[in-house]
Design a protein that fits this description.
Number of strands of chain B: 22
Radius of gyration of chain B: 24 Å
Distance between the termini of chain B: 29 Å
CATH topology of chain A: ABC transporter involved in vitamin B12 uptake, BtuC
CATH class of the largest domain in chain B: Alpha Beta
CATH architecture of the largest domain in chain B: 3-Layer(aba) Sandwich
Helix content of chain A: over 70%
Strand content of chain A: under 5%
Mean pLDDT of chain B: 84
CATH architecture of chain A: Orthogonal Bundle
Number of domains of chain A: 1
Radius of gyration of chain A: 20 Å
Number of helices of chain A: 13
CATH superfamily of the largest domain in chain B: P-loop containing nucleotide triphosphate hydrolases
Oligomer: heterodimer
Structural class of chain A: mainly alpha
Distance between the termini of chain A: 18 Å
Strand order of the largest sheet of chain B: 6-9-10-3-11-12
Largest sheet of chain A: 2 strands, antiparallel
């Protein structure tokens, strides 16, 4: 019982910042290597492309991180993205004003998140199960609604958005900032953020300390659903169609980004900047591999190896710091 | 009976009084801490050797060194005349060194029998001989006089019963040297008696027992010799017949025993909370009042319904009947949130399971109940978050490098201070402390008791649950005795003697109180 040593522990915040910097260094290193190795990597065109590719996963990863911090998992986000493209496409084609169509789509994401919260809190289902169930059924519902066809969106302005840039930076990347800054403030500077951590660490202790655990869980899944629906809108804009089978496997990319970004799947450890960097590291690897003409099959293997290596070193450092 | 015992315990009966294990300058340093200064000590076979000391005195370090969990910095361990490296737990076990820990480290989802033979399963041609193992386990358990079934899932037993199984398990492995680390912390008196019988039997067979406990009574009841550790130094070893409570405590803390129970009396004010015939899961028909400035003690065995009663008052569970009045008005408390809003604070029984977010910083744990107060609609005030946490750390003298250190890195006593400290800034009127000093050393206990006085002086009321009679006896202004979910007796400050209170808590006549608890 008596633990003698109180090890001089690095402050958690410093540690987080340090890990963030290491990831940033890794990302920069990748960019430098690819710029030297290929002629096309450093072109404005390719960088814009890279930012677009990484943006959507990055936003998904932020929502996913909120959930993982509570000790849960959201497997449904890929399916929600696909479903949201269908909702957005149908609404826009039905002549509903674009901003209203977007708002409704986002509300659908919120509703899905609330449903997850309900399943976990009220029905006592494990997060893995309830979100797995939504993953498969949302794809099914989307296919029923579209009869298995893609819906082309007949609104050019809507599609223009994802192709355009503002101040030389792709609009899609601006969306990451639009999500990232409030998410950062929410997670690290608001009490709800603290509650996400405390629930993930010990739900019973949080409850006895007056934290509304149920509301906190609802909140995490709702935010994840909201982020996913938002990504669905962006994807619909980018590809110009609504198709429920889109974004296949994105939930795994989002989880991978989050984990590479230092989120612990056991809960109570995570940040906002980590998953963002994680997402862009993955995007860079894919982009670079394409430019280097690496077989697409290899890209998947590289991603897998990278996840193991980064998380292993992160774990080593965590244990070492203890 | 004796013959079966010998069959069941494969280790040879050891020659008593021979030195079995000797420490020569055994030492452990961590970066920045000298956890154990060079210790010279010899353990004899067939002795019960108690080790006492405050939290952080070096007891755990010593156990970890002996069981091969951590490597030593320098020094030698001589086992049966030969130096032993004790580099791995496996090596220690192979020699015959085993430990029974305070928290049960067994597989809760497996059966009692499966746990007893874990790692040494009885199998024929690769097929587990399950029935034979259950039978054998049952025989061992029956033989030890434990009234427990071997075929049930371990998790279905109480913590105390699991602890007995953990002890029984150690006896079937050729153990020559057995370490008990606070084994009675969660045991009822009856279970503790069963455990003591087991320990004495092992001693009779020549096994060396290291017995670590904060409870002096147990040390005097069981041990032959006692060693005292303070700040990583072995202060001394005494024959139990030649020492007493006061001397040991003085050796442990350099302070006298009267200074520990610090009791100030305040004139009780208005009633803060009153329950009328409150019933719920695990208790029924409990009526009591807590007034400002008084400590209401709830004494009873573990499982007597005290924790259930307070958690129901706190809104964690639903009541089935009765009323609760808060400052004279009837209230319906249906969530913890509700209770906290009224002005209640609960420091729960289990630090690890209910009290702390272990893998989060000390500061976050301390501020958890007051984040609403130290943030506006949107943001937390970083300055307030810092001052509040730092103030509690300073006031309670929580030993932590900074408020950013993880709660898990602190010692048990300091963790307990966080569990209590998080409510101080909250400004509650009624504090409920459920076993606040389990696994806490004497020095920290004294600090916690002094804190009680400070709270009372500010007009708060306290409900103190304890299974440790001297604690409630010396501190409670009103002492309620619980038995099997019912409030069976009420006493004033020191108006009944230990014997009477114990009898009321135990009730069953055959369950003789064996000495003071």
């Amino acid at each position: 019982m008596s633990t003698e040593a109180i090890p001089a522990e690095k402050s958690k915040r410093n540690y987080n910042a340090l890990f963030g910097l290491t990831l940033l260094a890794l990302l920069v290193l990748l960019w430098v290597i690819l710029s030297l190795a290929t002629s096309s990597f450093a072109s404005a065109n390719n960088i814009s492309n890279l930012l677009r590719q990484g943006s959507m996963i990055a936003i998904l990863a932020v929502g996913q991180t909120f959930v993982i911090i509570t000790g849960g998992i959201d497997l449904s986000v890929g399916a929600v993205v696909g479903f949201a493209t269908v909702i957005a496409a149908m609404l826009i084609n039905a002549g509903i004003p674009v901003f209203l169509a977007i708002l409704i789509t986002l509300l659908v994401g919120v509703a899905i998140g609330l449903f997850h919260g309900f399943g976990i809190v009220k029905m006592g289902l494990p997060p893995f199960i309830i979100t797995l169930a939504t993953l498969t059924s949302l794809r099914g519902i989307g296919l029923l609604m579209t009869n298995g066809n893609s819906i082309s969106i007949n609104n050019d302005a809507f599609q223009e958005f994802s192709r355009n840039s503002f101040l030389g930076v792709p609009n899609l990347f601006w969306m990451v900032i639009l999500v990232g800054i409030p998410a950062y403030v929410f997670l690290h500077h608001s009490r709800w953020g603290r509650y996400l951590f405390s629930v993930g660490s010990n739900a019973e202790a949080s409850r006895l300390s007056g934290v509304n655990v149920q509301r906190t869980i609802y909140m995490a899944y709702t935010l994840s659903g909201l982020c996913a629906a938002f990504v669905g809108v962006l994807l619909a804009s980018r590809i110009g169609i609504g198709n429920p089978t889109q974004a296949e496997g994105w939930e795994l990319q989002a989880i991978a980004s989050s984990v590479i970004g230092g989120t612990s799947l056991f809960g109570a450890v995570g940040s906002v900047h980590g998953p963002l960097l994680g997402a862009f590291i993955l995007a860079t690897i894919n982009n670079g591999a394409n430019l280097l003409n690496v077989n697409a099959f290899w890209q998947r293997i590289i991603t897998g190896v990278l996840i193991i290596v980064i998380v292993y070193f992160d774990g080593l450092r965590r244990r070492g710091g203890k | 009976m004796t013959s079966t015992v010998q069959e069941l315990h494969p280790h040879p009966v050891l020659e008593p009084g021979r030195t079995i294990l000797e420490l020569r300058g055994l030492e452990k340093r961590y970066p920045g801490t000298h956890a154990l200064k060079p210790v010279n000590l010899a353990f004899k076979s067939g002795e019960i050797h108690a080790i006492v000391g405050e939290n952080g005195a070096g007891k755990s370090t010593l156990i970890k060194l002996l069981t091969g969990v951590i490597p030593r910095t320098s020094g030698e361990v001589i086992w049966e005349g030969k130096p032993a490296a004790l580099a791995t737990p496996h090596e220690a076990m192979a020699l015959g060194i085993n430990a029974v820990h305070q928290e049960v480290v067994l597989c809760r989802h497996l059966t009692v029998a499966a746990n007893m033979f874990l790692g040494e399963e009885n199998s024929r041609f690769g097929i587990l001989q399950q029935r034979a193992m259950v039978k054998e386990a049952q025989k061992i358990i029956d033989d030890l006089g434990f009234d427990l079934p071997a075929h049930v899932t371990l998790g279905d037993l109480t913590i105390g019963q699991q602890q007995l199984i953990a002890a029984a398990r150690a006896t079937v492995r050729g153990t020559k040297f057995l370490i008990f680390d606070e084994p009675t912390a969660y045991l009822t008196r009856k279970e503790a008696d069963q455990l003591f019988t087991l320990i004495r039997r092992l001693k009779g067979e020549g096994v060396t027992i290291i017995y670590i406990s904060h409870r002096m009574e147990e040390v005097f009841e069981l041990a032959d010799r006692v060693s005292v550790l303070r700040d990583g130094t072995l202060v001394g070893t005494r024959d139990i017949a030649e020492t007493n409570d006061a001397e040991l405590v003085k050796m442990m803390i350099n302070r006298s025993i009267e200074q520990i129970y610090h009791k100030e009396h305040f004139t009780p004010g208005a009633a803060i909370i009153e329950t009328k015939s409150l019933s719920g899961k695990g208790f029924e028909n409990v009526s009591m009042t807590v007034r400002a400035g008084e400590i209401v003690g709830l004494y009873g065995l573990i499982g007597a319904g005290r924790s259930e009663f307070v958690t129901t008052v706190y809104g964690r569970h639903h009541k089935s009947a009765g009323q609760v009045f808060w400052e004279g008005k009837q209230v319906h408390i249906n969530s913890e949130h509700n209770a906290i809003k009224l002005g209640m604070a609960l420091a729960p029984e289990s630090r690890r399971d209910q009290g702390l977010c272990l893998n989060l910083p000390v500061g976050l744990n301390l501020n958890l109940p007051i984040y609403k107060r130290i943030s506006n609609n949107l943001l937390i005030s970083a300055a307030q978050e810092k001052t509040q946490a730092d103030r509690q750390i300073a006031d309670l003298r929580i030993k932590t490098p900074t408020r950013h250190a993880l709660a898990s890195s602190l010692s048990g006593g300091n963790q307990q201070k966080i569990v209590i400290g998080k409510w101080l800034a909250h400004g509650a009127k009624l504090f409920i402390f459920d076993e606040p000093t389990v696994g806490v050393d004497v020095g920290t206990k004294a600090e916690i008791y002094r804190l009680f006085s400070a709270l009372l002086s500010k007009g708060a009321g306290i409900i103190l649950i304890s299974s440790y009679l001297p604690e409630v006896y010396e501190l409670a202004d009103t002492l309620h005795v619980f038995r099997r979910g019912k409030l069976v007796a009420t006493h004033g400050f020191r108006t009944a003697d230990h014997e009477e209170i114990l009898t009321q808590a135990l009730a069953e006549k055959q369950e003789k109180p064996g000495g003071k608890i």
